[in-house]
Structure prediction request, 1140 residues.
Amino acid sequence: MHKFLALIFLSLVVGCNNSQNLDNTNYDDPIPPESGGVLTNAMIGEPNNLIAMIAGDSASSAIAGQIFNALLKYDQNLGFEGDLADSWTISDDYKKITFNLKQDIKWADDKPFTCEDVLFTWKKVTDPDTRTPYGSDYQLVSSASCANNHIFIAEYDEPYAPALETWASLHILPEHLLKNENINDTYFSLNPTGTNFYALDEWTTGQQVKITTGQQVKLKTNPNSVHGRPLLEKKITRIIPDLSSQFMELIAGNIDLMNINPIQYSRVFPSRSELNDKINLYKEMGNGYTYFGFNLKKKPFDDLNIRKAISYAINKEEIINGVLLGLGEEITSPYKPGTYWENKSINKISFDVSKSRELLEKSGYQLNANNIYEKDGKPLAFEILTNQNKQREMTAVLIQRRLQDIGIDVSIRVIEWASFVNRFIKTGEFEAVVLGWSLSLDPDQYSIWHSSQDGPGQFNFIGYNNPRVDTLLENGRKELKNEKRKQIYDEFSKIIYDEQPIIYLYAGYGLTAIHKKIKGVKKITPPAGVFHNDYEWYIPKKFRRNEMSL
Amino acid sequence: MSLAGLIIILIIGVLAIFAGYLSPFDPNYINIDAILLSPNEFHWMGTDALGRDVFSRMLHGAQISLLVGIVAVGISTFIGIILGSLAGYYRGIADTIIMRLVDVMLSIPSFFLILAVIAFLTPSIWNIMIVIGLTSWMGVTRLVRAEFLSLKERDFVLAAQTLGASDFRIILTHLLPNSLGPIIVSTVLGVASAVLVESGLSFLGLGVQAPTASWGNILTDGKEYIQFAWWLSLFPGLAILITVLGYNLLGEGLRDNFDQNT
Amino acid sequence: MIPMLIGISLISFFIMHLAPGDITSNESAFNPKASEESRQKLRELYNLDKPIIVQYGLWLKRIVQLDFGSSFASHQRPVLWETKDENGNIKPGLIQKALPITLLINLLTILLIFSISILLGTIAAIKKNKIPDRIITLFVFIGFAIPGFWLALILMYSLGVVNQVLPISGLHSVGYEQMSKLGQIFDLLKHLALPVFISCLSGLAGISLYVRNGMIEILNQDFIKTARAKGLYEKKVIFVHTLKNALLPLITILGLSIPGLIGGSVIAESIFAIPGMGKLFYDAVLMRDFPVVMGILTIGSILTLIGNLIADLAYAWADPRIRRGLVK
Prediction:
């Protein structure tokens, strides 16, 4: 009966493979670049507002990033290069940055781009009436001015090292279109005009322009693009809120690329040869890391020995193999491995059970009758909180097992994100968490580690307080010479690692699946990621989908 | 028909009650070497994305689904009997108010109501049971009231009243036992419906929370790997289908039975 | 009608205050820059500092004017209807956009349930206890018992990925705007096919059974025997007489199943990413977007009331006894 049912089920699910086998195209054919073609991808959220400084959500910034430019951008090796700026100089006292803007650049509506636009944008982002969470970085600019139409000068009271990064993330807005608008509430947020490769491709007669009709965002090439025309004529981003549906769409050929998880990368794809015939997989260093965080304001986590003992008791390699199927790395500093700021000189805390026991006993803990460590009658027990995320759940369980083996009683609670943040993180009502941060490109870690940042809703919610680290973080922001800066942050990351306020667990790889019909993707992914040169991608005519005059 | 239903329910009930003994593995045991294995001799229903044995999780899921179903229906039946008795026996103002309340509750889509309440509290198995219970008492209320209305005028009730029996006694010992038929049918069918609601909620992530296994949340995992791990999608869905079918068959069969008797 | 509305508003209001803390403290964003002042502004807007009776009164006053506030999560978009500001910029209302889609799905569902269940129920009644009846009864029971989201998954995969007959998710295909009117309708139907089918299923099962039983009962009644005895054709007997009589309660039953349909839209729309009320509600619940949750709860209930009203009117119109009574 079992088999019969399975058979029926399988026949529905596996089905007549006719339609799949119709795709006998050989996508591996090398074909030189041709312009035209439409790329279809997907995202889970819907953009609300294409003025990135106001929007704050990743869906909006992703689309806005295709439409606007900043003064600087990251090159393929994660250094800085000019985007709207041709070149820039920093004064000797590090308090003045002079940007030489590119000339002959036009907005998508043919009006010229000038320094006025940059000045206007800066004024808006620092305006207290503008509803933006990002103003503080730009408020550090004591004065901004235009020497002429093509030279923008930003002056700071004190040297601010992360400045260049801030100028690489501020989308420059057109002054001539926005000067009379209320930036918090303008048609421009849904109908923007930019300078980058693409422009919004939705026109309806009348005032109201919708970004999404049928949940798609359509972009078409901007003929005035500052970098020249990209090869792909249009980009369509479908809004598919569910990752499993996205994967189904990828397999069915309805979208051309997506980010995939380790199981899809190592188990699903290798088992389906017809998938590998049409899709290429790319692996690159990811953008975030997962950690085990202690609430430093609760005992016994204020004891360094306990924290270290727990760190020794956790087998990080096992976690990477189990959770990421090996597709990740251990880290010892909060910076992207392979980049300049990574501190390679730190010795890892290895998996060492005896060391762990030694430290526990040093702190006065003894194994009791139940084989749990106990001190003054209190057993060593706590609860790990994490949110609904398969990888984090699995990580928490593997940690629990290792700690249970040694003699620490650990329970786990998985909480839905909204409750998690509101009831436990913001209130400080937690003992330990498994969470993640992003791997920053600029080494500044002030908002996460400075002792002043531990208010409710702020990022230093574990309550870290070290005066030396405070000083280092403050100095690091002012030091513009890279070598000196590296020394400061090397010391910073060494102290953090020595004190183990969090245990770095892993940094997972970014895994992307891209259909073979998209050519021009670099085979060896540069540090900036596989999407770095997407303006060079193209789809040869014979692989293009049957799109009615799109 | 009801016999078939009864057999199904008993089998599942036994499996659920003895889930702990019958499970070959701990349902929450993560095994990183056994990720997404198809059914084999060790794992009769395969493993999931964390290497957990699906068969064991299914057994424990049965426990959860039945627990939720029974407690939720218990709550709703309890409320329904009380309100229905009051409305049917006393009539007048009590009846009007109670029936208005029933109408109001019936016009709010119950799934919306359940989701809204869970949004304001936190998703947990107890909240679900209580919320489902608090949103499904209307049917029982109406049934009990209808039965009371027809039974109230009968001789044996009038006799008891003349003899001076208290209202409470009359309701408890005379009226209720004679209304049991529809109440039982409603209870059985109610369990079926509660199981469906619970699995739907768990599927959406707002029901039974991980890592506790529920048929609904096993399906959520199954969704991600449907083309690769068919076993994660087949078994939980089938289990829900069979369980609900069983209760429906029993309920409908009993209803036919009681209808014939009237 | 009015007491019902008051009852609904009371229950909605009560639910709103179930949450520990107040609704402004539940922002799920990890945003240290969300200031205390904006929270205070929200508190004032929702009158959270006043006694609860006053709060209810004020809230009711706003609801009556159809002002459901602005969404927390979607950048202050109005919950119900679009707002026009001084510059003439229109901000589309959330429910305004989502409602037509859900209504369309529910309308199609009701139509399908109505027509198919009459067909199935009639066949089952005529061929009572023979093979067609048994098959239909089996189908009915399975339809009752099958979890909609499971069937949705299976169909989505087998018809969308493996056999690529229907789209996998969403409401429109890429290139929708370029299609002809006919093409657009066809495209819409293709996308709605599975959600409507899933919504139909349990309703179909129940009502087919009801039609069957109703027909059987009527077929046994005297006036039918009379008609048969008079020698009227079998078909005419069935269609004209029994159907009309069996149909009346059907309208009421359909009316009663409306809340189930509206509520059931949550699962169907979430799975197929249809931007209707169900999905809007689900997203709002996940993000604790209370104005939207309250708005949909209230609107959903009002819709049900309207649906029942229509069903009552349709019943009155359809029942010749009532109609004649009115005319007299």
